[in-house]
Amino acid sequence: MKQTEQWTSKLGFILAAAGSAIGLGAIWKFPYVAGTSGGGAFFLLFLLFTVLIGLPLLLGEFVIGRSTQQEAITAYKTIAPNSGWHWIGKLGVATCFILLSFYSVVGGWILLYLFRSATGQLIGEMQAYDKLFEQVITDPVLSVGAQFVFILLTIVVVARGVQEGIEKANKYMMPALFVLFLVLIVRSLTLDDAMKGVTFFLQPDFSNLTSESVLYAMGQSFFSLSVGVSVMVTYSSYLAKNESLPRSAVSIVGLNLAISLLAGLAIFPAVFSLGVEPTAGPGLLFIVLPSVFAKIPLGGLFLMVFLALFLFATLTSAFSMLEIIVASLARDDMEKRKKTTWITGLLIFVVGIPSALSYGVWSEMTIFGKSIFDAADFLVSNILMPLGALLIAIFVPLKMKREVLVAEISAGSNNGKRWFAVWLLLLRYLVPVAIIIVFLDVIGII
């Protein structure tokens, strides 16, 4: 049965899909992963992986969703009935469940910072920010309580239907996010020793590049585009048949790379100027940003608005994660959707509590030497997402009819057929080989 909801415009779809992709992956995770993985060399790898692997995969998910007009699990069943291929959709649903469980923890941190900013408690002496962040992530009541509020906001929106709210809000929030990023970059670049940060971020230094850095760059290219979990299968199922999938995919990738570039240019000049280690980890964003805004006239107001927009970008990603689960269970039934959303969202909250406590009362509890939060992050970013992406890369050329692929790629564009062969070649050969190499590295064979 065809989906009853559709995006009202191509721009609405692009901004909603970009909202799904542009969140913690581009703004929070990218700066600290780049900082711990070689700076410019990592960014170059990330760019190559995103264009050569992320983009073909994104387009692959678009083709699956738009051609069937079905949510993730049913889409695979429609294309390959009476087979086990629908487990790709189920894997995506399970991955989003785990991902949202720890993603919501960081969403809670943002909420806490936004509250402190709104009440004038955030802007102050620079040396206090590391202690403030430690206080936020180690306090069990604050961490779990904020995580619950974040999940609650996500539930309320998804239970009412995502398209109308996300699509309209993105048209205003995403451009505003770009503008505020530019303001932050201008200020960061005028700080002392700022160019050292720019050099670290943009000048590749392959001497610091390790096999683990390659693995992280690959995982980040999946994480930041929301591919490998079939989120984009569900989102593209709401897209009209006359819209160009390649143009939409390129637009989303371009927005994602632009945000990642802006995030690096905003963070690293400030990092080097303020004497913070670029390998500071997840707290980098929460320590550096307040320091930068403290030096800007009306910095408290700028920081509050930025955190609100950052929260929105984070929520739009959370909406898409919960949406794929709910859409797969509710099957376009609005009454069932409400109940399913509440039950699923609350279960995700419960599963995420250990991640919320992993920097505090459960900090001594580790899994393979990693905290619960970091272990869940590694499982999703470096195993489940690449596995899902590998299966999608195999599924599209193997199980989908060539005429369907050509029709979907060509719809809404005169240039679709020109790039069809290149896209299919990358998806069929380069993507699987690259992912398999990373898997071999993960298990220590190479």
Automatic annotation (TrEMBL):
Source organism of this protein record: Aneurinibacillus danicus
GO cellular component, one term: membrane
InterPro entries: Na/ntran_symport, SNS_sf, YocR/YhdH-like
GO molecular function: symporter activity
Membrane topology note: Multi-pass membrane protein
Keyword Membrane belongs to the record: yes
CDD domains (UniProt xref): SLC6sbd_Tyt1-Like
Keyword Transmembrane helix: yes
Official protein name in the record: Transporter
Record-stated family: Belongs to the sodium:neurotransmitter symporter (SNF) (TC 2.A.22) family.
TM helices/strands, residue ranges: 12-30, 42-64, 91-115, 141-160, 172-190, 214-240, 252-276, 296-329, 341-362, 378-398, 419-440
PANTHER family listed in its UniProt record: TRANSPORTER
Keywords recorded for this protein, A-Z: Membrane, Symport, Transmembrane, Transmembrane helix, Transport
Subcellular location, record wording: Membrane
Primary residence: membrane
